[in-house]
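Q: Now give one record:
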Amino acid sequence: MHRSVKILKEEMQQGVDMLNWNALQVGDLVDVDGDYNSYPRTRITKKLDDVSRESALEPGPGFIGLDNRGDEFVFSIQEVDPSSYEKYAMAESRRVESTLKRLIKEYSHRP
């Protein structure tokens, strides 16, 4: 019984990971929490079907991204903090909305 519960949990986690991997796109900002390091505000630059082809990580889906210093690194989907995508997406949409409002106001006052 114990073994089947463990297998079921692993299968469920893989399903959640694939949902997250499919939802994230190139250009998205995420926080990455790896085994040894944490990388806040990482910009996804490429999606990978198998990170082991690009790194020494275990096989599986992931990304190549740029950290806040501009250094490129490979990370797996399991290292992504799922709540960080929402945090950055909301902040970016508010910034875009503010910029659009400013541009509309600027152009509407032109002669």
